[in-house]
Amino acid sequence: MAGQFLLGGDLAVNRLGLGAMRLALGGRVRHAEEGVAVLRRAVELGVNHIDTAGFYGFGALQAHEMIRQALYPYPDDLVIATKVGPLLEGGVMPTGQATPEQLRGLVEEDLRRLGRDHLDLVYLRVGGMGEPGGESVGERFAALAELRREGLIRHLGLSNVDAIQLAEARSVAPVVALQNHFNVNHRAGSDVLAMCEKEGIGFVPFFPLGGGRQPLDQAPLAEVADRHQATPTQVALAWLLAISPVTLAIPGTSSLDHLVENIAAASLRLTADDLAELAG
C-alpha cells in the first residue's frame, strides 16, 4: 500500500520489503525451518524485495540457503538483492574487503547458493561498520560492472558510501540503489538521500529500526503511534516511506508476528504534524 519503486527503471518492487540478516544473525531463529516460514509468509503478504548477503550466516543458519529453500522456484516478480565486498576470512563477522579480482568469485558463489543464472541487484558493500567515506570505490565497482556486462548481474548498487563515492561509482556504471545507515534518529548522510532522490536512485536504509546497537528514541514515536493506533515500530517505518518517494524499507525480523506488524506499516499515513514532531 506504500506503492512501488522501479529499480533501474525495470524492476518494480513494493516499497516495503524484507531484510534477511536477522534470519541468520542476531535474531530468534534457531532452525532453518523457522526462517523459511518467515520468508514464505512475507511473500504471501506481498513482499517482492528481499535483501540478503553471502556473509549473513552462522553455522547451519545461512540466509541464502533459507531463501532458496523457501522460495525456489522464485516468483517472477521477486527481486533478490545481495551484497558483496566483505570477506569473512574464517570468522563470523567480516574482517576484510575483497579485491577487484576476488569479487567475481563472490558473485559466482551467490549465484550458486541462490540457484540463479543472474543476480537482480548486487551492492558493493564498502568499509566496515564505521561511517562511510575515505576510500576509492572505482576499481572494485568497475569489476562488478564487467560482470554486469557479461549478464551475471542485472543492476548495481552501493552500500555504506558518501556522496563522493557515489559520484565516483556513477562515473563507472549506473547505480540503481544505495544502502546506508539511516533511520528516524540517525540522519547522517541526508545529502546522499537528496542525491538519490534527484537522480532516481533507490535509497534503502539499513538499521531502519535502530539495529540493536542504537535503539530508537521511543518517546516521540510512541506519541505519534498513539494518535494512529499503531506501534512505534510502524511509525518508524512509515516515516522512512514518507520522507522521500525513493526510500525502500527492508526491516528484518525472525518473528512471524513482527513480520505482520512491519508490513502493516505500509498502510500507515503520517500527517504533516506527525512528520514535524518526529523531526524534533
Percent of residues in helices comes to 25-40%
The first-level CATH class is given as Alpha Beta
Question: Major β-sheet, in short?
Answer: 7 strands, parallel
CATH architecture: Alpha-Beta Barrel
**Strand share of the residues?**
15-25%
End-to-end distance, in Å?
Answer: 27 Å
Word description of this protein:
- With 280 residues, this protein is α/β, with parallel strands linked by helices.
- It is 39% helix and 16% strand.
- The protein contains 11 helices and 13 strands.
- It has helices at residues 21-24, 32-44, 63-71, 100-114, 138-149, 163-170, 190-199, 218-228, 232-243, 256-264, 272-278, and strands at residues 4-7, 11-14, 18-19, 49-51, 57-58, 61-62, 79-84, 86-87, 96-97, 119-125, 153-159, 177-179, 202-203.
- The strands form 4 sheets. A 7-stranded parallel beta sheet has the order 3-4-7-10-11-12-13, with helices on one face. A two-stranded antiparallel sheet has the order 1-2.
- Helix 7 links the parallel strand 12 (177-179) and strand 13 (202-203).
- Helix 2 (32-44) runs parallel beside helix 10 and helix 8 crosses helix 9 (232-243).
